[in-house]
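Today's session is about reading a structure prediction critically. Students often jump straight to the picture, but the first step is always the sequence itself: look for stretches that repeat, for charged clusters, for runs of hydrophobic residues. Only then move on to the predicted structure, which in these notes is written as discrete structure tokens rather than atom positions. Here is the chain we will use throughout the hour.
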Amino acid sequence: MREAYKGALSRTLEYRPAVYMVWAVVVALIIPFYMFSMHELAPSEDQSVVFGIIQAAPNSTLDQTKLYSAQVEGVYRKFPEYKNTFQLAFPTGGFGGMVTKPWTDRKKTAQQLQVEASMGLSKIPGIRVISLIPPPLPGGGDFPVDFVVASTAEPEQLVEFANQLVGKAFASGMFMFADADLKFDQPQTKVMFNRDKVRSQGVEMSEAGKDLSTLLGGNYVNRFSIQGRSYKVIPQVKRSERLTADQLKDIYVTGTGGRLVPLLDLRHPEHHDRAARAEAVSSSSMPCGFRASSRRECRWTRRSRCWKALRKGYCLRDSRLITRASPASSARRAAGSSASSCSRRS
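Below is the predicted structure for this chain, in token form.
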């Protein structure tokens, strides 16, 4: 076989003009082949796992989140395709999922299980669970559609506009989930001291600030060692006694001669919500159906409805869709979309 290959190669090289002609034709056909090739979003792959992103209230505690997130496992266990689950809980959310049986031992795909699981997970009170499957291609986000809207407007105006985008995404009927990461739901309480009352009670401002920092701040003051391991010493009021702003009335600060003075006699709490982010808002969405095979979602995010919703002073800083293109070409398209959007709307 080797000798036959050497003979065929030698005879071919004797007719080099013909070889160059074939090479030129093949290179010239690359352009029409690329232009007329089919384009679609990358099809979802069955990786035998269904993820669930848990969102809880901004003022939720770990005990409260664990109470409701424990019901997620019950939803997954109802499926015959269930093999095992995993979950990691935080005070304001968590992450988990269901690992399914091998392909040969189940009839339903991971995409079908994702849709059916989302219906059961939506009935769990106290938390919001977003059901999704791993993306077919690696990317910088967790959802099939991500884009960032940048503006110099105030956060209050930006969150209003972000909510309008989310509403239009749901109204389009093409997305089973849509959300924005800019929210005014982070509880914050300001302690405003009345200096006249502080002086009349014989309390030093530095001492009052030190007491509040110790009771509510969560800073560690020292370390101690147990069995060769070092641990932090964090003096703090019990979590059950610092859940709401109304519980500040039960806190005392040190006055003259070590006398304890109620904090309520020195100030009045001011409670308000603050934004989690500013200057830019990221919107994420997930198309309906088992797989995103059409380009309607792409047109929605980059061209028609989302573009019409943009106001003067807003621009698309970055957008991402999972496609078949290479990472380099995707980055060039995203950069081009960002530049054109900002130049036309800023």
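Discussion point for the tutorial: Residues 16-35 form the longest helix (20 residues).
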